[in-house]
Amino acid sequence: MNREIYHYLQNRPELLHFVRMNPVWYRYLAREPNRVTEIEAVSKQFYGKTIPQKLDRLNHRMQMVGMLLQFAESMKD
Questions:
Q1: What is the reported pTM?
Q2: Each residue's pLDDT tens digit, 32-59
Q3: Cα–Cα distances in Å, from 15 out to 1, 7, 12, 24, 47?
């Protein structure tokens, strides 16, 4: 792997962890160092940091709160 790419990964612990969890990326980055931008996008998806994933989690939390409120309401009666 290119020394510059390795230092870049060391400065970004999440990316380094992602590469360690998915070793095929060592090969990709060794052959094509310009795929660093691609690994950032894929790691965001892996960690659930994309906007659709965040919205889905928010929606799920709102549903849980709604169910808890309904449960609390039914327990009052």
A1: 0.74
A2: 999 999 999 999 999 999 999 999 999 9
A3: 15, 11, 6, 13, 10
